[in-house]
Design brief:
The protein has about 160 residues and is an alpha/beta fold. About 25% of the residues lie in helices and about 25% in strands. β6 and β7 form a beta hairpin. The N and C termini lie far apart (about 40 Å).
Length: about 160
């Protein structure tokens, strides 16, 4: 049960959350369409390598991670997308590509796009291609303690205050 580890963690911290079941979908935009959640309100977890260490970059489903921007903000020597073989074994309780943005449960840093903080709630994959969790962004921030950075760029960039 992919959701069990996350649910146990949220329950231990007395967090209010909603589990949303949906038909199988493999892309963040597909999930947003199925669940009627705007792409800017659905967070996707993108696995990256930062100077050889796995990390999570969390951005709105409608956006792409700007690796050069992440590299600049972290003052890293190298930032690149991680390939599936590099991270699959770290998430034995999750379907590949459906990891929740809780790097703290997997021993890795989490970098979240600051635009996600503009919404009261955050929704994200819950470890499977059939379930989302929706909770307040404040609770997510408190539990995960992500580093908030401008991780996306371009015309569609939502500006944080």
């Amino acid at each position: 049960m992919p959701l069990s580890k996350l649910r146990e963690f949220l329950d231990q911290h007395n967090i209010k959350y909603l589990v949303i079941s949906h038909s199988v979908a493999y892309t963040a935009q597909g999930i947003a369409a199925l669940t009627h959640i705007p792409g800017k309100e659905l967070a996707k977890t993108v696995m990256v390598q930062v100077d050889g260490r796995l990390a999570m970059a969390v951005v709105p489903a409608s956006a792409r991670v700007d690796l050069a921007r992440l590299k600049k903000h972290l003052q890293a020597d190298q930032v690149e997308l991680a390939n599936e073989a590099e991270f699959r074994d770290r998430f034995s309780d999750c379907e590949t590509g459906a990891m929740p943005p809780f790097g703290n449960l997997y021993g890795m840093d989490v970098f979240a796009d600051d635009a996600l903080a503009l919404d009261k709630e955050i929704a994200f994959n819950a470890g499977s291609h059939r379930e989302l969790v929706r909770m307040t962004f404040a609770d997510f921030r408190h539990l995960v303690n992500p580093v908030l950075l401008p991780l996306t760029s371009g015309k569609g960039r939502i500006q944080a205050a």
